[in-house]
Please model this.
Amino acid sequence: MSITGGRAPKDASRREQQRRKQGELPDRLQAAGGMVPEAAAKVATATGSSEAAAFGVASFYSLLARPDKKVRVCTGLSCRMKGADEVLEAALAAGLDAEGCSCLAACDTPPAVLKDRVTLPEVTALDMAATKGDWTALASSSHRVQATATGITWTGDVGPADAAPDSLSINLLGEANYEGAGLAKAAELGAGTDDADAFFQELENSGLQGRGGAGFPAHIKWRAVAGQPVQERFVVLNADEGEPGTFKDRELMMRRPDLVIEGLAIAARAVGADTIYLYLRGEFQVPRVCLEDAIAAFEAAGLLTGLDFHIHEGQGSYICGEETALLEALEGKRGMPRLKPPFPVEVGLWGKPTLIHNVETIACVPGILARGGAAFRAQGRDEAGAKLYCVSGHVARPGTYELPLGVTLDELVEAAGGYVGELKAFCPGGASAGFLPASERTRPLDYKSLGEVGSMLGSAGVVVLNDTVDMRWACLEQLRFFEDESCGQCAPCRIGTRYLREAVDRDVAGTCQSNGDRALTHVDDVAWQMGEGSICGLGQIAALPLTSARKYFPGDFQD
Amino acid sequence: MIITKPTCTIDGQKFEFTAGESMLEVARRNDIAIPTLCHDPRLDPAGACRSCLVEIEGQRRLLPSCATKATDGASFQTKSERVEKHRKTLFSLYLTDHADEDSEGGQHRGAPNKLAGASKKFGAENWGKLTNLRDEIAGDRSADVNPYIQYDSDLCILCAKCTRYCDEVEAVSAITLVGRGSETAIATPDSRSLLDTTCELCGGCVAVCPTGAMGEKKPKTRNQPIESELKKVRTTCNYCGVGCQFDFNVDPDGRDGLGEVVKVTSPDATPNQNMDLPAGFSGVSSDGNLCVKGRFGYDFVHHEERLTTPLVRGADGDLHPATWDEAFDAAIAGLEKVSAKYGDDSLAFVSSARCTIEENFLVQKVSRVAFGTNNVHQCAAT
Model:
């Protein structure tokens, strides 16, 4: 068993060794200093790729492309509402080589700052000034941060504190458990044998839907991978949490890594995979340590025999949270989504059948087995299970709250200590879900109900905006995010994201398009084209912040 | 037993196809036009330009016909309202971000620009112009002193045909997509000159580029009529024995009306209708691929020092123009003289790699039959 990136285990096949070498490309680029002259040439030989391909990879990922930037301040909506701009200014004033960056998955502890690759919560302008220009001296004065032997650790707020354990699928406040009851139950139900129907049926009974955003029934994916004629299969954990407003996976990995690792082990046994790839965003240095500790604990209990856990660090790219872009990144390439179909269950990592799940989805599995699918289903309302909701922005206690799937915004915010100010709008599921007006505060926050109003639950990253917020400003922030994070592969997204951002910039400035048309004249057509023409979900939904903001808050725009 | 071929329905009409064919291939074989920018039969389909999307029955999303295999019973639309709207808005979006036909660039360098044609055809509108963010990420191109290939980011639609061709067909991988999002461009590692990369200057990137962003640098190809107005003369490359086919592109007004070769383009492997060829043979051995010599080494054609007649050295020691008969006679006389004096094996024949296989065959005939020696060699054989 190996739990680090890098070399494949000694007994791995030659083909697997070659694959690992290729997949190491981003790691080696990082070691070579990122996108600096001659770095590509150095790593190309070692990994068997061309120099041009290595250079292309280095330029794609923001942590590699700008290696000098050791301090990055989150520019997500929640962080900017909490003074991220001042913190960035203070960083530059202190002489730090700093820049703004995309959401760091710490919206509950804003403003978040990335120090090299470690995310710090609640960094203040004073913290920046105290560095006196030395980035290594940067430390957050937040009460959350604790020093450990290997670095620092910190967690966000979670709740509800008084919930009955039976009502929770995850239970972030629960004790980590390395006894492997879920694994034992999976084996009992026949997982991994020719007679695994009882196992899959239990999964189906649970009604578990993918918690990464799409809400796809999990059992269909599991059955599909297990039923492939190709025998070599993979399980991949998608821990590239980057949807603005979302931080539940970070909190889950830090508090209950046991559930994640046990869920992965169950998945591997059930679909017949030996190798499990964990794709963590590079900014998750603290969660990574928690996962490694959990792997070691299960290993010590003798529950991971024959399984190889391989952790791959992301290098700064939101789009790698898209499952096929993630596979490309694992293969050491630029993270550009693949055309679908074929889907990963059929043609996935290295062309083999692959089961990919979000952290939260996989963490639900041990509980489903231990307590039964029906119990899990009963934890939700119209849809199954309890759900980790991330809530940030204008609420009293931003954090991760595990509530029945289908609670309303009002219920969620009540758990988070109530609104700050008068509710104006909210993003129900990260930037990708667009905005909804206050009148939707009693709509169930689940996959179906939000889909009905052209929004989505997505990753359940709920951002609450009060009436001090200009919706045009808020929408511009989201548009800029999608423009920065578009992979650039297909024209509708590459050009469309920029067109929309420039159009809103013009609306702010009160200027026209170069052809004399008003700033927003063509944005609906652009949005239509992005929705129809884009390869992946990013482009398909990237116009939603603008179209929804215009729909519900036309008064906030000039045009 | 009756074996029936699978069929699919395109725009309401049924067509047979062979398993493995893409929807695009079936449509094109039956003269149903589908626009493409990033497609090339030599490359794996990328589905990146999005021009070839079609509406497939039972599919929620429009899908790229280049990358979607035809299946038995499948039905798809290439002209539905949704597809038409898609093409119109897609090309409108392309126009916001790229130099069009009338601007400097493609037109003035004579390169064909498929984007401009398609935009007109599908009724693309002017939605205003965006600023070009590709230039900076592409690096300083003026430092690239290679004599043949240049990159104009203004025209580039990032279809990645050039980088895929360089990798998949030539296995050279000198260029790559660099950056991401709207700040993506085509570049070399560390933005070096092509001369300092693995590039072999084959010019394939220029040939596959649909917009002229990858263009030919030679001054002669600037300010010339656009490619469609040049006369194409098919010929066989004589730089080596492979026999690549190419088209001399002749500017009829060049050299005071004598005509001038201003460019070489490579035909694809579409079967030549004028040749009686068995099925599956195109008569084009090179499949549209050329090397640096064939693609860019055409200056000699009109060079003032080019030999256009045989020369025979006279008693005065100087070379004098002669007819082919006189030249052959002189050569034969010289060879026979040596052979008579020193024996057959005192002669050796070395043929050129620029000769065709038929010519090489004849050289060994001359050697073995006419002069009786096995001393025959060909310079490419070592």
The mean pLDDT of chain B is 89.
